[in-house]
Amino acid sequence: MDPKGQRVKLNDGHFIPVLGFGTFAPREVPKSEAVEVTKFAIEAGFRHIDSAYTYQNEEQVGQAIRSKIADGTVKREDIFYTSKVWSTFLRPDLVRPALEKSLKDLQLDYVDLYIIHQPVALMPGETLFPTDENGKPMFDSVDLCRTWEALEKCKDAGLTKSIGVSNFNHKQLEKILNKPGLKYKPVCNQVECHPYLNQSKLLEFCKSHDIVLVAYGALGAQRTLQWVNPNYPILLEDPVLCAIAKKHKQTPALIALRYQIQRGVVVLAKSYNKKRIRENIQVMISGAVGRGLLSSILHKGHSLSSSQTILE
């Protein structure tokens, strides 16, 4: 970590801010809101912005970034922007055109980080989630090592500073790491990670290979009926997390974010609520919680209410 304690050095020499602003929003949220909340996040102090082609909001996020550059709030080099190559573009010949499409939407010359969104290839086309006549997903057969080589070429071309992956398990990471002729290692693996799913074994593996683990869903999994049983416990209402927050005179959200930072994880805080955006940035500005937090969580972790809890 750099002297300011707000960035982590990647294995290719670049630096990534340890706290990022996630821009994903459910379909019902108007895309135009991404402009205002991203501008607000930058004004509040966020310098790491995470988006993706499949979020379908890069045009709006790019507009916000360019607006804050134009008014002098930041310079382009102050912003660390992450985009992702979607599953319908994992054929090697489609990777660069996909990145170029994102850059065109963003109206930026480069992204700071370009990652494979998930290790599952879908049939190419305009549809994000192609299905057959029976409604079943239409998968594609792609060698992810060839996809990775296409990302390496994007880095060499200066279209992205760094390259990485998302939602990979350790075996899928090993496939890339052991690829003959590997030119660049993945700098990161972005996965769902929070106190109910702490990814401790994957984190250990990533650290052993100098790969940064980036946590999404850090404040709890996206609670859409498509993905999460509404009867599952809500992370930020967990009694242990709330007790620790009360002890340190902080919010449960800040405890959850600080927990990740103290274990060496880069953490994304997603919110379209300005009050919460302002609150989340405090984890870096005020050093919200002391060094005793992590051991406190680890000591009490076994009593977290979810049956999914794996605090080790």
Structure description:
The record marks 84 as: Lowers pKa of active site Tyr. This is NADP-dependent oxidoreductase domain-containing protein. With 312 residues, the chain is of the alpha/beta class. The chain has one domain (7-228, 260-274): Alpha-Beta Barrel (TIM Barrel). Helix content is 35%, strand content 15%. It is built from eleven helices and ten strands. The protein has helices at residues 33-44, 58-70, 92-106, 144-156, 170-177, 200-208, 239-247, 252-262, 274-280, 282-285, 292-300; strands at residues 7-9, 15-17, 19-22, 48-50, 80-85, 111-116, 160-166, 188-192, 212-216, 266-270. An eight-stranded parallel beta barrel has the order 3-4-5-6-7-8-9-10, surrounded by four helices. Strands 1-2 form a two-stranded antiparallel sheet. A hairpin with a 5-residue loop joins β1 (7-9) and β2 (15-17). The longest helix is centred in the first third of the chain and has 15 residues, at 92-106. 41% of the residues are buried. Mean pLDDT is 90; it is low at 298-303 and 305-312.
Summarize the structure.
Helices cover 35% and strands 15% of the residues. The protein is of the alpha/beta class.
> What CATH architecture do you see?
Alpha-Beta Barrel
* SSE sequence, one letter per element: EEEHEHEHEHEHEHEHHEHHH
Largest sheet at a glance? 8 strands, parallel, barrel
Tally of alpha and pi helices: 11
Share of residues in helices:
25-40%
Looking at CATH, which topology would you report?
TIM Barrel
Overall geometry comes to: globular
Mean pLDDT: 90
Structural class: alpha/beta
Number of strands: 10
The Rg value, from CA coordinates, equals 19 Å
Spatially, the strands of the biggest sheet line up as 3-4-5-6-7-8-9-10
* Count of structural domains: 1
Beta-strand fraction estimate? 15-25%
CATH class: Alpha Beta
CATH superfamily: NADP-dependent oxidoreductase domain
Question: Which regions have little confidence, pLDDT < 50, spanning 5+ residues?
Answer: 298-303, 305-312
Note the gap between the termini: 23 Å
